[in-house]
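User: Could you check the structure of this?
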Amino acid sequence: MVTPEFLSWGGVGSYVMQLSKNLPSDYEVHVLCLGGEDGSDKDVGNVHVHSLGTAKDTFMYNNQFQLSLWRSFRDLQEAHGFDLVHANHAQMADIMLKLLGEEVPSVTTVHSTIGSQRQGTKMSRLPLNQLERSERMTFFLLPFLRAAERMYMNRCSSLIFVSEFIRDWCVERFGVDCPSQVIHNGIDTEMFSSKDLGECGERFPALQGKENIVLFSGRMIALKGIVTAIQAQAMLDPALKAHFVFAGNGDTGQWELLARSAGLPPERCTFLGSVKYEDMPYLYPLASAFILPSYSESFPLTILEAMASGVPVVATQVGGVPEMITPGRDGLLVPPRDARALSDAISTVLSDPLFARQMCLSARTKVLEEFSAAVMAKRTAEVYTSTVEGWS
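Assistant: Sure, the predicted structure tokens are below.
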């Protein structure tokens, strides 16, 4: 499997981890990625990790990885005899291998596209100087990136789409016609489950004593709808004593300033910054509601994690999110960029514990039945088999 992010900053890294751990035991899994500060290899369980550099959440590190993979792949292939390469997009991690002609059959999971991401960023309506660096670089290089993405997609020989939404997007815009499957993301439902609240509080001492925590988890970038979240909190009835918590990688400085300018003091709004993946299962249970007010999403893992952890979800009705949530049954959906609707939905969850509890029970059942990592891995292994057989 190839991806810049593994045990690092984003949803693709979480996807690769969950998939690697849940593939059948007779699979030998190697992950080619960017590593930690020292860039050293470090196996995780039965997953062999090969670090091709150090990881930072910036636009240029994706490009660094593309070049490093091209330089290293043949030696790694000779050493380990890979039977198949599993790449991930919208990173185009293996674009150099596809350009020069693949020597090993490959499967590519499409998590999002450059176009759908740019659409979400544009919808934030933030000025260019307030966008995160990767969002600014995408803006400046958009014509080149779109051309590269079109070429990349049309050189894929086997595709997995994480949602019906992103499949339809790619068929409409790129005309892809290679063998493909929609396989929804899945998570570890034991890892993300109810936890002892005392232990959760010990891991997050800054949140001890906080009431009605409303949690956001994701990259701190414009397309995630952080502006809308802050506006929604300012509209909430103070009697609810809602305390917003933002957890995720990226610069929180401008968002903290925005919160203060909206009249939200630190005692009502906490920015945790980056949270380790292994600590996230202990953060969700502290929340009375989870929000994801994004302007663009394909099939976000954070929603599944919250649903499995027993936290009521309020999200925007964008992308593949409606494929995850039946409104009023296992979560609430609101229009994007509608702070009033988001505020009202949060108020409903916080004001009606019985309704919230019923949604939580339904949501966890849905994740167990439809969106577990075991189900995802089983279906993905079937794609591996058909791809290798088709290659030979």
